Amino acid sequence: MAEYVLKFTKTGYSKYISHLDLMRVFARSFKIAALDIKYSQGYNPHPRMSFAQPLSLGYSSFAEYLEFETVSEHTEEELLAMLRPLLPEGIEILFIEPLDIGKKTLASETVAAEFVISFDTDATEEDLQKIMDGYVSQPEIIALKRMKKTKRLEETDIKDKIREISVSKPDQAVIRCVLDQGSGSNLSPEPLIQSFMKYADLDVPRWDVEVTRRRLFFTDRIQFQHIDNPL
Predict the structure, then answer these.
(1) Are residues 63 and 8 located together in one domain of the fold?
(2) At what angle do helices 125-136 and 189-200 cross, to 10 degrees?
(3) Is the pTM of this model over 0.85?
(4) Nearest CA among 24, 15, 9, 26 for reference residue 91
(5) Does 32 lie in the same domain as 129?
């Protein structure tokens, strides 16, 4: 048995592929490639694979990770040759490497993610910087956040889940942020977008805001961390 991690992009129209459909895309690709993927036991066997962190529908990404197991060992070149031609446009495999983290999973080792949020506005970069300075200087940043247990939207302070945040305007307004992601603490960009737009009094429809995940951050136990650099 061998374990691997596969890093891939999710761009263009592929950002509208849901999490469950993405699972089916890879399961189908493994099957067509005749890859000796390892299956779970029981009445309803399924491929032994999982994503590091689910991506919201409509988000683009340059840093998606899939871990999977095979019955026998393969080289990176063999796996790339098998799988790359079978994936839809926008889903591009960046690398495949052996993965050895014992009983841990990538999901349990994920701690944060870098996002880029872009939108059009008439505000100048100087105006946006003043707004951002005021936004982050608040003692609390209150936003509507969906609670994990109740699934209800509740007002909550998200400030301690924002690790880094900055704004610029090379063309569009661009917010770069690093947010908690993982089982211990998790913040979606959605509450941040909602609270920032409200604080800035910017009338920007949500459908005109683009979100891209640029990087995932893991614990030091992940051995491929050294080559996972921002694009």
Answers:
(1) yes
(2) 110
(3) yes
(4) 9
(5) no
